[in-house]
Amino acid sequence: MASSKIDHLTIFASKENFEPLIEWYKKALSPLGYKEIMRFPGIVGLGAEVPDFWIAQKDTHAPAGFHYAFTAPDRAAVDAFHKAAIDAGGTCNGKPGLRTEYHENYYGAFVLDLVGNNVELVTHHPEPTKV
């Protein structure tokens, strides 16, 4: 199965949610090695190697309700994301597990962030066989 490539994406946060949301994503995405890489006034870039996930401050109320998925290297990372995201204050929107309605190896977890976006971490790889 070919993987789609996302160069970067940006979500928006109101002034009062800007810094808390940055901290939440840094914790929730730490299992992927994400950290703050770049910061400019009103916008922060997070990533593992390059800033591919941006959070921008809006003066007005920012719309919520987006869904986006990050690719995990394995099921353990999906499990770690779910725990880290919940521990950081997110709301469970789907525990880690197989979603065979998508395909037989679709293993994902869903968490609502601090402003209501539905964040998913997914792997498409089968569980490694134990020797």
UniProtKB/TrEMBL annotation:
Record InterPro entries: Glyas_Bleomycin-R_OHBP_Dase, VOC_core
Domain VOC: 5-124
CDD domains to which the protein is assigned, alphabetical: VOC_like
Protein name (record): VOC domain-containing protein
Organism: Penicillium cataractarum
Phylogenetic lineage: Eukaryota, Fungi, Dikarya, Ascomycota, Pezizomycotina
